[in-house]
Write a structure and sequence with these properties.
Blueprint lengths: L1 H20 L4 E7 L4 H16 L8 E7 L7 H10 L4 E5 L1 H10 L7 E6 L18 E5 L4 H11 L5 E6 L4 H17 L2 E6 L6 H6 L7 E4 L3 H4 L2 H10 L4 E3 L12 E5 L1 H16 L17 E5 L1 H5 L18
Parallel strand pairs: 1-2, 1-3, 3-4, 4-5, 6-7, 6-8, 8-9, 9-10
Antiparallel strand pairs: 10-11
Helix pairs in contact: 2-10, 3-4, 5-6
InterPro entries: ABC_transpt-TYRBP-like, Peripla_BP_I
Protein name: ABC transporter substrate-binding protein
Keywords: Signal
């Protein structure tokens, strides 16, 4: 009798093991506002970190990537396609897409992890910085403009006025502008902010900085970041150094430097949160990730400075910030 029971237990264990082994991998839908090197890095960082955490692609998890080609009118259709796949999780990239997902995904049992969101509280994605919502939490890209201005003062000693561009219709940009104004006041700098809600207007808006600022620093704005080469071309023409909050090594000949949050690390931090949810934690119990000092990178481009008649300060000539 005892031997028979042992055989039954062993058989049941084998059945359970076979069922677990044959279980379909979890589907994570990655939805982005558009394809851009920085936003793609968020997705790449997410997938790479998930692999480090033990999720083998094709076995434990599979990914479907979709984007709206930076067209707001396509977002509802994109989200319908995502939800129709009945995913185990959605990884949504950018503030606007997450706002739309929170409203538009009707199946609230699907957890939404966000990436590339500056301020999820102001955007209405989570209730506060200590909690996620019932179905959403993730990794923020809250900037550190105090550090950015410390960086600018080292690259350009004597700097007084900084120009920036923003889209007044984007919550992401509104949050950035509030933070940058506060940091500028602490740093003794003046911000000259120029609104732009259409990419076609960028050349004219950048031109308006001529003679009014010492440098231009670009925030994490979708409308601006998708057109940085255009901004750089005009900035060089009016002889103004251009600095960016997004690192783009291919533009080092056109930009003077970068004080940038790592989009790759943002995706990695989002994956850490996704792992916790997949293991049973509730989104509401997971605080959004706030970037730390190690999440930012500083670079200076001698070539980009030279393009507008400037040189690297002596104090930085041996700095690890220098791009070769």
């Amino acid at each position: 009798m005892i031997h028979r029971m042992k055989r039954l237990v062993a058989a049941a264990a084998l059945v359970a093991f076979a069922g677990a082994a044959s279980a379909d991998p979890k589907l994570i839908e990655i939805a982005s506002f558009g394809e851009h090197p920085a936003l793609n890095e968020v997705a790449e960082g997410f997938k790479a970190r998930m692999a480090e955490l033990g999720y083998t692609e094709g076995k434990d998890v599979r990914y479907e990537f979709r984007h709206a080609n930076f067209d707001r009118t396509l977002v509802p259709q994109l989200l319908q396609q995502v939800e129709a796949q009945h995913p185990d999780m959605i990884f949504a990239i950018t503030t606007g897409l997450n706002q739309a997902a929170v409203r538009g995904i009707t199946n609230k049992s699907i957890p939404i992890v966000f990436g590339a969101v500056v301020d999820p509280v102001v955007a209405g994605i989570v209730p506060d910085w200590q909690h996620g919502s019932a179905w959403s939490t993730g990794a923020s890209m809250l900037p550190n403009f105090d550090a950015s201005f410390d960086y600018l003062k080292q690259v350009m000693p004597g700097i007084k006025k900084v120009g920036t561009l923003f889209n007044p219709g984007e919550d992401n940009d509104t949050s950035n502008m509030e933070l940058i104004q506060k940091a500028a006041a602490k740093a003794g700098l003046e911000i000259v902010a120029v609104p732009v809600d259409n990419a076609n207007d960028l050349p004219q808006r950048v031109q308006s900085f001529a003679g009014k600022v010492d440098a231009i620093f670009l925030i994490q704005s979708n409308i601006v970041q998708t057109s940085v080469p255009v901004v750089a071309q005009v900035a060089q023409r009016i002889r103004l150094p251009l600095f960016n909050s997004v690192f783009a090594p291919d533009l080092k000949g056109q930009l003077a430097g970068f004080h940038a949050i790592s989009y790759l690390k943002n995706g990695q931090h989002a994956a850490d949160i996704a792992d916790r949810i997949l293991k049973g934690e509730k989104s509401a119990d997971i605080a959004p990730y706030v970037p730390q000092t190690v999440d930012f990178e500083s670079y200076v481009s001698p070539e980009g400075l030279a393009a507008v008649g400037l040189t690297v300060p002596d104090a930085l000539k041996d700095s690890p910030w220098i791009l070769k």
